[in-house]
Every structure is written in C-alpha cells, then in structure tokens.
Amino acid sequence: MKRTLLLSALLAFFGFSAAAQVEEEIRERGPQTTAPVSADAVRQGNWIIGASIGDIGFNFDSDFFTLNVNPRAGYFVSDNAALGAEVQLGLDIYDGGETFRYGLTPFARYYFPEGAAPTHRWFGEVVAGIAGSSEEDSEGDSVFSGIFGLRAGYAHFVAQNVALEGILGYTRSSADISVGSGSSGLNLAVGLQVYLPGR
C-alpha cells in the first residue's frame, strides 16, 4: 500500500512538473504582445516613421465611403522629444462625386518620462500646417487653409521597435479636410509607429 501511494505521489509530481514545463514553452512561443523597450526607442538620434488611420467607413444607406490616412516621419532631437511632419490624405466617395483632401502638418512630440513604463509611454503633440481639398465651390474652403492641433496619446510597444498608438486630439481647420478622423473639433485615431535606431 505504501509503495502504491509513494508511486502515485511520484507520478503526480513528475506529471505536474512536465505540464508546467510544457505550459512555459507554449507561453514563450506565443505571439509577442509587449516589449520592454520604451526608453531605448525615444532616445536622441532615433527616427520615427508610421501612420495613423483615423477614419475608414462605408454608409450603406447613402453610398458614402471615407478613408483618412496620415503617414508621418520624425527625428528625435533630444531624449523624449521628436520633430517631424505628417501628410494628411483623405478620400470621400459618394453618389455624385468624390472629394480628395490633402495637407502637410509639421509636428512636435514629447514623450513624458513621468508615468513611463518599460512597455509604454504617454506623449503630447502639437501640429500646425496647411491643408486643402479638391471640392470646388465649398463655403469656407480655399486652396490652402491653416491647421492647428493639440493631441495626447499612448504608445504601447509590442515589439523591439514597433508601437501601437491611440491618439485623442483637438484640431482646428478652415479647410475641408479631416485631420486624424475629424475636422475642427475632437478626434480619435489609431496608429502604428516604427522607431528606428540612429547611428
């Protein structure tokens, strides 16, 4: 009886050990969802490239399709501070026509060291530039109009040099253009940024 009990206990111990080892191997081989690299990514001399996708949609009732994409590139002039430019591209296709929107907005972005963690950073951003649209005879629109915006965002690093971003901001524009999923007013955008090391 003692031998059977001892043998059962040993088998259970080795079974649990093997199961724990298999579970650990599965966890290690699973998809990477976070990376502790936020301090390295925002160092002086690094580059940031990527895009925000603000608004993609199709209205079945009115046959209205809209797409806004904002590619960007920037350079870290010091630790936590980047300067760059963002291209504003938008397209509305509707029954009876289409409108193409365009613009260029330089930006200044600062990543806050307060509240930072190895896997994420909060940041603030200012944008100012020009924009316009192909929509003719639109009230309040001109060939080029000014854009000004303030944004706050969260960058979550999912890999060595890649971060997913959520950005909430206020944009003021007199152009017929959506900037990060909104014209004049509050807007919300989601983006993917790649942080490239400098020299």
TrEMBL record:
<protein>
    <recommendedName>
        <fullName>Outer membrane protein beta-barrel domain-containing protein</fullName>
    </recommendedName>
</protein>
<feature type="signal peptide">
    <location>
        <begin position="1"/>
        <end position="20"/>
    </location>
</feature>
<keyword id="KW-0732">Signal</keyword>
